[in-house]
Every structure is written in C-alpha cells, then in structure tokens.
Amino acid sequence: MKKILITRKLIKESEEKAIKTFDPILNTNDELYSQSKVIEMSQGCDGILSSLTEKLDKEIIDKLPDSVKIISNFAVGFGNIDLEAAKKKGIVVTNTPEVLSDATAEIGILLILGACRRAAEGIDSAKEGGWKWSADYLIGKQLTGTRLGILGMGRIGQKIARIAKSLGMIIHYHNRSKLSEDKEQGGIYHDNIKSLFSVSDVLSICCPATKETENMINKETVEYFPKGAVITNVARGDIIDDEALIDALSRRKIYAAGLDVYKNEPNLNPGYLKIKTAFILPHLGSATKDTRIAMANLAIDNIDEFFKTGNCKNNVN
Ligand code: NAP
C-alpha cells in the first residue's frame, strides 16, 4: 500500500476512505505543520495530500524526499504550490475541480448580497439593539437591474452568473478567452479588465491566483470602476492589493466589499475591520459537509488513479 502524508485532519468518512485506499499518516490533532515539519513527516512517503494552509514553494519541494511522486491538493486552487518546481522534481500536482463549485458559488452570492445590502452593519445593529426602523435606515444597493462583472467566468463564475441572472442582474465578464455562447448565458464579454471594471456596478472575483492576476485590483484599477461600485472576492486574497481597496472604501469610491479570502490568511489586513461596509467571511467557500467529503474523496481518488494508471485527469502541472 502506498504511504501518504495527509497534512490536515479530514472529515471522519474521508479518513476512513483514506485508510481503505492507502497507508495514511493522519494529522489527528489537526496541527498546522511548518514547512520543516512537512519535510520531516514526508520521509518514506509516496505522496502528500496537502491543503491550502501549506505553502509548498520551491525551497520545500526541492527538499522533499525523492519517494514523493504526487501532491494531491485538497482544493481547486493551487496557488500554494510551485507547479514548476514540482514538475522539475518529477512530482505530479492534482486539484479538486467541480465538486466545490456549487458551494463556492453560494458563498460568492452571499458576498454580493451581504456587501450590497449592508449585512455587516445590519448584523451589528441587530445585536447592539436600540435600532430604529425608518424609511432611510441602512439603505443598500438593490441587485435587480444591476450590472455584475465576473472576473474569471470559469466553473464557479458561471454558477454565480446563473444565480445572479435569476436575481435580475446583468452579466458582464472577462476571461483571457471568450466563452462559447452556452457558457456565456447571455453574459457580455470584455477582452480586458479596464472595459469590464468600467461597467461593473458589482464585481465578483472568481479567477485563480497567478502571477498574472496578483494585485489585479490595485490603486490604478480601482479607478476604472463606476463611483460607488461593490467589489467581492470569492477566489484568492492575492488578487487584491488590500491597501488600495481599503483606501477606495474609505473615500467611498468603492461603496462596499464582500470578502471570503485574504492575503496572509488568517491575518487579514486590519484596515478592513475599520470599514463598516466590509462584509467579511473566514474563507467559507467550500465549507459544507457534502462538499468537503467530495473534495477529500476526489483528492484520495486522484492519488489512487495516479498510482494505478501513471496518470491523473486532475493533473495541473
Ligand atoms: P476555473 O474553472 O479554472 O475558472 C477560472 C477562470 O478564470 C477561467 O474562466 C479562466 O479563463 C479565468 N482566468 C484565468 N486566468 C485569468 C487571467 N489572468 N485573467 C482573467 N481571467 C483569468 O476555476 P474555478 O473552479 O472556477 O475556481 C476559481 C478559483 O476560485 C480557484 O482558482 C480558487 O482559487 C478559488 N476558490 C475559492 C474557494 C473559496 O473557498 N473561497 C473555493 C473554491 C475555489 P481563461 O483561462 O480563459 O482566462
């Protein structure tokens, strides 16, 4: 049986599946492993089932034992892994696409609703008590008839588009390549971000974190938006330059933000805590039981498929 290091505690059903499939090293205390601990724990292992809380950069990949042939990431995003360094060392990297798209799209919609309808302020007021209803109390932005820009209209972006359309939003999107008509669902394509941002009353960020997308929301690009736009991010924190967004929120160029992901999680930029219109969640995108089990099962199946066939359909490098 292949020996696999599973870096984080999984839901019970998934750990049972792992035990049936290979000889796993489980993290029963769900300790956050340091980079040196990952190297130490992976000695003699054939593979690693990693999660987004481990930064597997070139330095750590180069130090992994030669016996490690696969890193199966428990996420669809793989910005935590240096794909090139893994490839050079002959390590296959896999991810868990599709199974988390519904759950993440739900959180994407929650961010849009929460930011537009001032949910953060509403929750604070309801808990504090003493609030008084009036005709102009906590007036928010209605979604019906509002333009939604989707940056990264892939699996999750398309699901968000479908739900947002049913709420009466008008869909615009930018990808590097235009989608086929059925995937566009009537959405209007923009071949550059300036064009997309300039028509986005609300933006939903759904693209991966890459060198190209890092800090795509920055001092210059926040100015492309209509005044009072709303920016939401269900993808990865690296796509936003926090200082630029916090500044735009402070001067009301950007009306509100809805964020699930951050640079340096869980230590988000404290500037967000001072912004009343920031609706912030602690990386809940895929956090439903069914989805987490499906993700873990797929991460396990990816390893199994790789060792049985020498290949894996979810190989990303
Ligand atoms: P996907 O199907 O690969 O979609 C990504 C989309 O982004 C594609 O349409 C792609 O189109 C576009 N894109 C890639 N690079 C781009 C660039 N440089 N400029 C503009 N568009 C670009 O991925 P997915 O399954 O929807 O997941 C998207 C991301 O969501 C993941 O990478 C992950 O980081 C994040 N995520 C977060 C959570 C959470 O818990 N909050 C959960 C799941 C996923 P082109 O290739 O044509 O450009």
Q: What does this protein structure show overall?
A:
With 317 residues, the protein is α/β, with parallel strands linked by helices. It has two domains: 3-98 and 288-309, NAD(P)-binding Rossmann-like Domain (Rossmann fold); 101-280, NAD(P)-binding Rossmann-like Domain (Rossmann fold, 3-Layer(aba) Sandwich), CATH 3.40.50.720. The protein is 34% helix and 15% strand. It is built from eleven helices and twelve strands. It has helices at residues 12-21, 35-41, 58-63, 83-88, 101-116, 119-128, 155-166, 181-184, 193-198, 242-250, 289-309; strands at 3-6, 23-25, 47-50, 70-73, 92-94, 147-151, 170-174, 188-189, 202-205, 229-233, 254-259, 278-280. β3, α3 (58-63) and β4 (70-73) form a beta-alpha-beta unit. α1 runs parallel beside α11 (289-309) and α5 crosses α7. The longest helix has 21 residues, at 289-309. It is globular, with a radius of gyration of 21 Å. The mean pLDDT is 97. The structure holds NADP nicotinamide-adenine-dinucleotide phosphate. NADP nicotinamide-adenine-dinucleotide phosphate is lined by residues 76-77, 97, 100-101, 104, 152-157, 174-177, 206-210, 212-213, 234-236, 260-261, 283, 285-286.
